[in-house]
Amino acid sequence: MKNTVVERELELKLVLSPERSVPVPARLTYRTGDPYAVHITFHIGSDHPVNWTFARELLVEGVFRPCGNGDVRVWPTKSQGRSVILMALSSPDGDALLEAPSAVVSAWLERTLRVVPPGSETEQLGIDDGLAELLSPTRTEDA
């Protein structure tokens, strides 16, 4: 099975305070070989890129309504009249609030949903084929 990758580079904003944010280059990555997850890499091109992985479903839902709890929370809002998606990420190293343009994230998510429609993720993993092979009766040759 072919492993398809859907990537998009974009500029996120790291929100430091209501008045101040810093641009952060980032890359969104989706792989059909890991169909339930989305990957975000921050600081691309630096010596120490930071990678986050979380459920694609969380990002899809977060475009429309607040969702998530714990380490990753996502919600839509407006910033200076623009539609944006906020992602609050928490780790032992610290917390970050990132702002992403809704249109860019939504367009990228739509591409991932065309490649692997919601509900068909299991097929991508080939689990059914593997199970069928495991559960099929083995043929023994009679001499």
Describe the structure using short key phrases:
7-stranded antiparallel beta sheet, alpha+beta, 7 strands, single chain, 143 residues, elongated
Distance between the termini: 37 Å
Class inferred from helices and paired strands: alpha+beta
* SSE pattern, N- to C-terminal: EEEEHEEEHHH
User: In percent terms, what proportion of residues is strand?
Assistant: 35-45%
How are the strands of the largest sheet arranged? 4-3-2-1-7-6-5
**Main sheet, how many strands, which sense, barrel?**
7 strands, antiparallel
Low-pLDDT regions: none
List the SSEs and their pairings.
Blueprint: E1 5-17, E2 20-31, E3 37-42, E4 50-55, H1 56-62, E5 72-79, E6 82-91, E7 94-101, H2 102-115, H3 121-125, H4 127-135
Antiparallel strand pairs: 1-2, 1-7, 2-3, 3-4, 5-6, 6-7
What does this structure look like?
With about 140 residues, the chain is an alpha+beta fold. It is built from four helices and seven strands. The chain has helices at about 55-60, 100-115, 120-125, 125-135; strands spanning about 5-15, 20-30, 35-40, 50-55, 70-80, 80-90, 95-100. The protein is elongated and about 65 Å long.
Short characterization:
With 143 residues, this protein is an alpha+beta fold.
